[in-house]
Q: What sequence folds into this?
């Protein structure tokens, strides 16, 4: 028999999104997933089934998220939760979701609890931030030849986890951190942070910044004539940065990235661009859309592979774990490992690896650091 | 004679304005004392000093020989002094009864047990309410107990203010222009009430008023101030014939 | 470092200044804190952006267009919302402005999306060197506007008949009507002014903090804090307050660490209100008994 | 010639019917007194004339124009000013600014400054306090300011609601004398509500006595002063 | 504000108690009713938590006249106090509520002292500053674990683990207690003192009301009630984080709840709490993915309520009721 939420015509999947409230700009993730599913449905669905993708606004209030997820499960009988957003909301509901055996695929959160959750039903989206942090230190050493670095980070779970990873990297690579400055996600002005970088005479900077603050940092950096090289974490890699800060200010900045480039001729990324433009024309497309896209694409790939048989959660898990070296999405390669009961979900990562780009001459250009060659 | 309230060279300045300039006076226990003077002479300011709404810059105030110039405003009731205001200052949304009950606030006992309606508080509340009703009846406010005071006619509001002051079981009441805006009939009524409060309850009364008919008939003794300073003191008849007072305040009676 | 922190702080403070002035103007004239003030600015910034992007207006025409639009918005807010509840206590008015905040946020999100948009740079990006610090030209222009508008308003309220009448209306609308003051018109004018100031604040700030439905949230909060420095009454006080906040935040961020930066404004307001309940430049104390 | 005519005026506050048919005639250049107990409807009558309270029935006619339905500021522009009950000083405005607001509807600068001088002379107290905030004045000083502000409008008809409230006896006589002088020199018509019936009737030519929203007695001031009913209820024994 | 005349008020008091009784009875039976699923009880739990928080606000804003836009701060204080004591001392939910209430009351008292001389808009901005202040503190002081947050174990009440239905009943019981408390409080001499301070501080002081004491008392009682709501918010999802509890939108929502329901009416927070907590879910029943539309509807509904019933829905309904009865004939009181 089919699993809950599945009929011969339709599969119901759900997600909670901050459509309003303080982090509503991250609703872009839900829109990304939604665009993909709309595209799938417009092309006849998957094996004859339409995907009904239900998004509900939780305002980023965990108490609401909890109620919404209970509704998904008890009232709506949803099959899986795909590409929901938020660290705090997910933390509040993940126990419940797992307890009910609902697959949680590609949640937009980097918080340790959610990424390292011990469960076979959890499929985190991207690499844990601390690993990235460590990697970035290596980058400053091997690419910039830095000895003392400065870090500007967002004062939240993501930034602090980056910082933890960076500290590990400092030891590992024998580098000193001479300045580390946090900022609040909505802070109006980041000048004092950049001034301190300048004052500390750093050789290189790591920015754990989302696009808007990153743009502010680079504007300020240009203003102060601070010429040291910079590498930015993956979630700040967005065409928005040069657009907001001006090309000149971002020239030469390195970014980590997990997706293919927008102007990569690869058909999948070009298709994604077309789909987003079609369904959400008013939005400027960036990495956050692709977060949602990834979960949605992986999910529909799994359903497709399940063929015309019964669609059950157990089969879904098996099928997902069977996705190896798949190159049919916006991520260069998806390679999902197997997780036994009681093991950490880390092998389930949808996006396991990271690449780098550098912004030069008005576009992001691929950059391969020495150790990847 | 015992002094109930005494000012000793009280001075109050507002920037350049000297509202009270070394005012000294004495309010005798159990009497009705009047305070008069031209507009802006400093009467209300002096009342504010006495009731601790206003600090004085110089001088002292004694209540039964106890110096009070550093007391809190709300402590004055505990000492036994209540007051009314020149501009009616009631709790407009609340009923007459509630207004009077607030006057009795310092009698509610322990606020924590009151707040939880413990048995002792319950008993106490009942007593206070009974007394409030009595006071209201004494001031002919019996019919208005449940009406929000903002809907009452002006004269009644003045009486509610008085009732509220009385509810505190004071030994002295300061009245600032109790009959302003009342017609002669109402003035007469209030005059009687003031006299009764004084004689039946033995409460000392200190009042400011511009209605000479009232002042001259109810007061036992009158103090006159002018430009913030003492001008004259005496019995009503002495004051009425005092040349300085006539010149500064009363005016020549041309009738 | 001090010089640069100071200068940058001054620049940031100037971003708060116009909003603070608008908060003061609305409060003085209506006794309401306008929670939607930031959103008027936000809408103004969006309008200017649309004019520039889709209709190829130049910057100054776009500013003018935005000003006209926001004045209309202010007037609309008064006619449709505030006038209906004019007799209520200020808590009700205050909550109504919150309702407008929701609506404007929703409208902006609905029509323009929730992601951040760039506002074309209008000033020469080459920074200038002053007193041992570097400052961008955009900030200088911002400061000049804030100072000029503040001065004009100050004179208007202090010396002109209409300005005094505005204050009279706040004080006691019924009596003001008895003096022949057209109360409704004056209240309308206030909201028009709120719109006018909002448009300036929004368009001037947009290139620096970018355009999005939430762009003004943080600025508005700082605007309130600054306005309290002026006792919610003094216009120069509000401007000085805004600059002070910018400077103190930056100095705290620079010397105490970035954790202390965000708390600065709120620590300042709590301390200020604890010791000077009517602000640093509050009005003469009124007697109440 | 009649300047102001009220015919069968009615007004209410919710369920309270404050005016139940008031008719009055005020001749140009006259000083007319309105007496009555608390709550009789005196203030409501004045408020209806100046447009603050909307009458539910009846007519108000001023200089041949119907005032019903006009807003207060339109009415002020026709030349009616009011000294409201309870002073209603603008508390956050200075004394000088308060006076300036009195002349809001006027634009004859030279005359305004003459009137200002006249008022400051009449109330020297106010000229000492020109820069003080209205809210910090003493009760009587506020009353003076309210009267001064009303005069600043230089209206054709001045409505005074209890002008003697809270004033020292010596001032009351002065003020009425001045009002009369202005009445004569400037031909300013006045309608005066007073508790102090004695002084009001002494300074007026005609009087009305209101009782629960109706005119109970009317007549020439001199006659009213002799009227037994009036003497008993309004002038003390 | 409330413009209900007194005789009417007396009748309303009886009706109010009857209404409350029925309401609570219904609330007790509700989860057991046929067709009711556990998610509905959870939805109700959310509403209960909002009601309670709004009750706290109404003590201060409605009865004492001090407008607060900072009660999200007390929500956080209550939540964190209980979370920390659960994490480090292993206390259960009931103890947690006492800890949260006590801590909140203390902070409320202190804030009351700091803001002793504020009123009106200044108080609103001051409390807003307080909410942000609390936000920054829990965000940056290590023990609170910032935006990473603290995850809590499952809830226990006197040794028993409780699920969502158990939590619902616990919350309901707590709401019963706070409602009883608030209703006793506002009718007592202390409540009178609060209202006296609201209506005229000067006259209250002249009547012997100790301004300092009663203002700080109002602050701490109000904070305590909202603090208990904070404890519930924390334990409901077994998680606290500065990202959530430092949010000023809670403060704003609680104020809205208070105003919408009627700020000095016992039933006010119930209606208002329902309004803020349930409106989004309600809108979703009719509009799929309302998103920004929900914002517009919320704002529009808020303004509509204020225009139609400026003194709050409860008072508005009472007035409407009275008017209807007047219209329908003779039965005047
Ligand atoms: N805050 C203040 N600032 C400046 N002057 C003030 C202030 N308060 C009072 N005054 C002045 O102090 C003087 C005394 O005022 P007060 O109210 O005591 O007079 P009063 O004798 O009660 O007069 P009245 O009979 O008119 O009520 C007045 O001239 C008043 O203008
Ligand atoms: N705003 C109001 N709301 C309700 N009733 C009112 C209001 N204003 C006046 N009233 C009532 O209307 C009636 C007439 O009031 P009005 O003020 O005209 O009387 P008045 O003759 O001026 O009395 P006073 O001598 O006290 O000034 C009174 O019964 C009064 O209680
Ligand atoms: Mg006085
Ligand atoms: Mg009157």
A:
């Amino acid at each position: 028999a089919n699993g809950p939420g599945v009929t011969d015509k339709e599969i119901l999947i759900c997600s909670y999104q901050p459509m309003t409230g303080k982090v509503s700009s991250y609703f872009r993730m839900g829109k990304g997933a939604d665009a993909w599913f709309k595209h799938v449905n417009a092309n006849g669905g998957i094996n004859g089934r339409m995907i009904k993708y239900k998004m509900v606004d939780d305002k980023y209030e965990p108490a609401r998220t909890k109620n919404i997820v209970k509704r998904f499960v008890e009232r709506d009988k949803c099959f899986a939760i795909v590409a929901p957003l938020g660290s705090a909301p997910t933390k509040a509901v993940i126990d419940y979701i797992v307890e009910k055996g609902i697959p949680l695929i590609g949640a937009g959160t980097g918080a340790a609890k959610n990424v390292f959750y011990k469960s076979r039903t959890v499929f985190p989206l991207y690499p844990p931030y601390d690993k990235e942090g460590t990697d970035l230190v290596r980058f400053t050493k091997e690419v910039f030849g830095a000895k003392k670095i400065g870090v500007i980070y967002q004062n939240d779970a993501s930034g602090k986890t980056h910082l933890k990873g960076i500290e590990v990297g400092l030891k590992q690579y024998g580098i000193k951190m001479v300045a580390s400055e946090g900022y609040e996600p909505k802070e109006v002005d980041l000048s004092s942070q950049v001034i301190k970088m300048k004052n500390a005479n750093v050789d290189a900077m790591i920015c754990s910044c989302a696009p808007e603050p990153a743009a502010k940092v680079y504007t300020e950096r240009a203003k102060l004539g601070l010429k040291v090289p910079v590498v930015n974490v993956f979630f700040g890699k967005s065409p928005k940065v040069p657009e907001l800060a001006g090309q000149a200010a971002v020239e030469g900045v390195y970014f980590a990235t997990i997706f293919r480039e927008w102007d990569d001729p690869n058909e999948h990324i070009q298709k994604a661009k077309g789909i987003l433009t079609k369904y959400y024309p008013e939005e400027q497309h960036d990495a956050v859309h692709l977060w949602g896209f990834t979960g949605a694409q992986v999910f529909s790939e799994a359903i497709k592979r399940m063929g015309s048989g019964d669609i059950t959660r157990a089969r879904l898990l098996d099928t997902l774990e069977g996705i190896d070296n798949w190159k049919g999405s916006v991520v260069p390669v998806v390679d999902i490992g197997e997780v036994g009961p009681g093991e950490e979900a880390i092998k389930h990562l949808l996006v396991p690896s990271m690449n780098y780009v550098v912004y030069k001459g008005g576009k992001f250009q691929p950059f391969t650091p020495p150790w990847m060659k | 004679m015992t002094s109930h309230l005494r000012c000793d060279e009280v001075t109050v300045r507002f920037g350049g304005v000297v509202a009270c300039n070394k005012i000294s006076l004495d309010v005798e226990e159990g009497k009705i004392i009047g305070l008069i003077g031209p507009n802006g002479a400093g009467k209300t300011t002096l009342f504010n000093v006495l009731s601790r709404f206003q600090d004085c810059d110089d001088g002292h105030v004694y209540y039964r020989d106890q110096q009070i110039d550093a007391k809190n405003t709300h402590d004055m009731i505990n000492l036994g002094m209540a007051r009314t205001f020149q501009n009616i200052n009631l709790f407009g949304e609340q009923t007459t009864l509630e207004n009077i009950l607030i006057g009795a606030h310092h009698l509610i006992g322990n606020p924590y047990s009151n707040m939880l309606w413990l048995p002792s508080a319950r008993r106490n509340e009942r007593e206070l309410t009974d007394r409030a009703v009595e006071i209201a009846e004494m001031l002919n406010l019996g019919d208005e107990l449940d009406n929000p005071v903002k809907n009452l006619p002006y004269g009644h509001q003045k009486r509610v203010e008085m009732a509220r002051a009385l509810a505190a079981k004071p030994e002295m009441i300061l009245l600032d222009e109790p009959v302003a805006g009342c017609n002669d009939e109402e003035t007469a009524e209030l005059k009687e009430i003031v006299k009764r409060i004084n004689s039946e309850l033995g409460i000392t009364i200190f009042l400011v008023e511009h209605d000479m008919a009232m002042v001259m008939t109810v007061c036992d003794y009158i103090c006159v101030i002018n430009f913030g300073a003492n001008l004259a003191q005496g019995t009503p008849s002495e004051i009425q014939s005092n040349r300085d007072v006539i010149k500064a305040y009363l005016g020549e009676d041309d009738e | 470092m001090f010089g640069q922190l100071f200068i940058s702080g001054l620049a940031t403070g100037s971003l708060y200044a116009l909003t603070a002035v608008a908060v003061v103007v609305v409060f003085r004239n209506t006794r309401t804190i306008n929670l939607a003030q930031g959103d008027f600015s936000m809408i103004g910034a969006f309008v200017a952006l649309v004019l520039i992007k889709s209709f190829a207006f130049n910057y100054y025409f776009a500013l003018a267009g935005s000003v006209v639009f926001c004045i209309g918005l202010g007037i609309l807010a008064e006619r449709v919302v505030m006038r209906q509840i004019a007799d209520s206590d200020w808590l009700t008015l205050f909550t109504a402005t919150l309702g407008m905040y929701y609506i404007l946020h929703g409208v902006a999100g609905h029509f323009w999306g929730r992601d951040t948009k760039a506002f074309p740079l209008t000033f020469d990006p080459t920074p200038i060197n002053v007193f041992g610090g570097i400052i961008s030209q955009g900030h200088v222009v911002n400061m000049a506007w804030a100072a000029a508008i503040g001065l004009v308003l100050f004179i208007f309220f202090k010396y002109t008949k209409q300005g005094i009448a505005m204050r009279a209306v706040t004080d006691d609308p019924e009596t003001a009507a008895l003096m022949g003051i057209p109360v409704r018109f004056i209240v309308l004018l206030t909201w028009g002014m709120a719109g006018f100031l909002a448009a300036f604040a929004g368009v001037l700030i947009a290139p620096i903090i970018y355009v999005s439905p939430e762009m003004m949230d943080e600025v508005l909060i700082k605007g309130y804090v600054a306005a309290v420095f002026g006792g919610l009454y003094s216009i120069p006080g509000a401007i000085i307050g805004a600059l002070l906040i910018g400077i103190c935040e930056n100095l705290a961020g620079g010397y105490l660490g970035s954790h202390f930066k965000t708390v600065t404004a709120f620590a300042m307001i709590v301390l200020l209100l604890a010791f000077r309940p009517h602000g640093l430049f509050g009005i003469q104390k009124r007697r109440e008994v | 010639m009649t300047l102001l005519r009220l015919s069968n005026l009615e007004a209410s506050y919710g369920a309270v019917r404050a005016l139940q048919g008031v008719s009055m005639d005020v001749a140009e250049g006259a000083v007319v007194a309105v007496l009555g107990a608390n709550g009789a409807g005196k203030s409501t009558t004045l408020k209806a004339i100046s447009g603050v309270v909307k009458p539910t029935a009846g007519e108000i006619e001023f200089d041949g124009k119907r005032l019903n339905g006009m807003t207060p500021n339109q009415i002020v522009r026709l030349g009616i000013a009011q000294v409201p009950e309870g002073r209603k000083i603008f508390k956050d405005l200075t004394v000088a600014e308060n006076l300036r607001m009195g002349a809001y509807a006027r634009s004859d600068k030279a005359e305004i400054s003459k009137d200002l001088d006249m008022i400051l002379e009449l109330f020297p107290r106010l000229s000492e306090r020109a820069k003080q905030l209205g809210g910090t004045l003493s009760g009587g000083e506020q009353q003076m300011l309210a009267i001064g502000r009303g005069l600043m409008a230089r209206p054709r008809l001045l409505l005074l609601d209890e002008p003697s409230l809270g004033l020292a006896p010596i001032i009351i006589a002065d003020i009425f004398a001045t009002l009369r002088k202005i009445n004569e020199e400037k031909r300013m018509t006045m309608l005066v509500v007073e508790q102090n019936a004695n002084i009001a009737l002494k300074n007026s030519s005609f009087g009305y006595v209101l009782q629960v929203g109706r005119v109970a007695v009317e007549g020439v001031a001199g006659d009213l002063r002799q009227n037994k009913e009036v003497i008993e209820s309004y002038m003390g024994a | 504000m409330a413009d209900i005349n007194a005789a009417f008020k007396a009748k309303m008091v009886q009706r109010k108690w009857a209404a409350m009784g029925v309401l609570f009875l219904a609330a007790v039976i509700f989860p057991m009713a046929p067709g009711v699923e556990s998610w509905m009880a959870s939805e109700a739990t959310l509403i209960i938590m909002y009601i309670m928080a709004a009750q706290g606000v109404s003590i201060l804003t409605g009865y004492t006249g001090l407008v607060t836009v900072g009660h999200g701060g007390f929500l956080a204080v209550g939540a964190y106090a209980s979370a920390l004591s659960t994490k480090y001392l292993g206390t259960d939910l009931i103890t947690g509520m006492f800890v949260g209430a006590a801590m909140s009351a203390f902070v409320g008292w202190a804030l009351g002292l700091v803001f002793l001389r504020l009123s009106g808009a200044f108080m609103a901005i001051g409390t807003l500053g307080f909410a942000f202040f609390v936000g920054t503190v829990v965000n940056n002081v290590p023990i609170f674990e910032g935006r990473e947050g603290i995850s809590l174990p499952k809830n226990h009440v006197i040794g028993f683990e409780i699920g969502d239905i158990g939590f619902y009943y616990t919350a309901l019981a707590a709401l019963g207690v706070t409602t009883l408390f608030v209703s006793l409080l506002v009718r007592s001499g202390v409540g009178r003192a609060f209202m006296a301070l609201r209506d005229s501080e000067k006259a209250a002081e002249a009547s012997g009301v100790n301004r300092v004491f009663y203002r700080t008392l109002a602050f701490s009682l109000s904070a305590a009630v909202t603090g208990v709501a904070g404890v519930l918010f924390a334990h409901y999802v077994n998680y606290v984080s500065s990202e959530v509890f430092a949010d000023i939108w809670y403060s704003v929502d609680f104020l809205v709840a208070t105003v919408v329901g009627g700020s000095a009416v016992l039933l006010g927070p119930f209606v208002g709490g329902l309004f803020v907590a349930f409106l989004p879910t309600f809108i979703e029943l009719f509009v799929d993915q309302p998103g920004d539309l929900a914002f517009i509807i919320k704002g529009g509904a808020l303004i509509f309520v204020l225009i139609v019933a400026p003194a709050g829905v409860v008072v508005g309904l009472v007035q409407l009721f009275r008017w209807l009865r007047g219209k329908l004939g003779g039965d005047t009181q």
